[in-house]
Every structure is written in structure tokens, then in C-alpha cells.
Design brief:
The complex is a heterodimer of chains A (114) and B (111). Chain A contains no helices and eleven strands. Chain A has 114 residues and is an all-beta fold. Chain B has no helices and eleven strands. Classes of the chains: A mainly beta (114), B mainly beta (111).
Amino acid sequence: DTAVSQTPKYLVTQMGNDKSIKCEQNLGHDTMYWYKQDSKKFLKIMFSYNNKELIINETVPNRFSPKSPDKAHLNLHINSLELGDSAVYFCASSQDPGLNTEAFFGQGTRLTVV
Amino acid sequence: RKEVEQDPGPFNVPEGATVAFNCTYSNSASQSFFWYRQDCRKEPKLLMSVYSSGNEDGRFTAQLNRASQYISLLIRDSKLSDSATYLCVVTGSSNTGKLIFGQGTTLQVKP
């Protein structure tokens, strides 16, 4: 009965490939996010969607393209993967983007680019 | 300067000890404050929100000092199960839900 689920959990791929990570939430939340956690454990926001509309787009290479087909899904497509893209990518959702709203995270996708 | 700064530790304490973590943030316009917990190779989960008046949840007490831009977490009577990384989190100044994370403080509670 997972609240925020993302697939795959592990992804090993070669440089230059294109890959996608999928995320779904069954909490009825309006807002979904992608965060990246690098090797130094810093979690940084990449994108946020509210009701399928992009509201946050941090300084992320345009090789990264989020897509939200509906408010329960937010997928992340990455083109031309580079070694530096290796990280754990977390999807999250919250009821709304307002203050004091708890964010629920998926279990993470550990991406390794070789 | 990082937006949210924490001492990464690790803090190694015996069971039953009291331990305190501190955090500072740079944006005085930040409006909401949290402590999240992240177990090894797991996702972050909300531990507690932090309110200006200070708040307590069982063995955990959180404090916020807006003037000093300082947040703290106190854990009393540490349990082995408290071993984890504790992330100090603030929101940005705009109402976007963006969470800004500190690097985390690692706690290891030993028997």
C-alpha cells in the first residue's frame, strides 16, 4: 500500500544512454517533486509540479525533462547520461505547496552511470 | 555559504544519553521548519515540524530561534533505533513547497 512509489529502484547504465524514472502517488496530493541526493548526501530539489503545472525548475541541465501526465504521476527522463548524474533520485509529493505541508518521499532510485 | 548548515557528525552516544543537534539557515524569509529523519539507504521521513514557541513529541524537542536563524533538536533517553541521519529542513520564502535540506547529522546510538 505504498504512498509514493518510484521505479526502478536501481538503475545502472552507460554514459550517453537515455533513461526514465517513473513516480506515482496514491495520496491524492496536488504537488509532486523530484529531488537529487548526491554522494555527499545533500538533497536538492530539481523540479516541482502542482496539478500538472511546472512551478519549480531549479538550475538543472536541460537533459533532464520531467513529465506529468496527471497529478498522480511525475516521471523524469534523462538524456545523454553523464557520470556526474550518478546519484539517488527521490520523488516526493505533498498535499499542496503551502507552508508546513509534509512531503512524502518515494524509496529512491539509485542511478549509477558507468 | 550553504543555505542550511549542520554539523555532519557522526555523533556516537550510549543508549539513554541525551543528544542535541543544531542547524543554522541563511534565508531570514524562510517560513517553515522541519526535522526529517533518513535511515541508511532509505527515503527521508518527517520527524517533526518546528514552531517558534518550541514543540515536543515524546523524547524529541525542537526549538526555533528566528532572530539567530537557528534550529535545534534534542533527543532524550536515546534508543538504538534512533540511529539515523537527522536532516534540518527549511522552506524557501515563496509558497512553492520547496524544501531546502541541510547535509544531515548522523547519530549512532550504541548499546
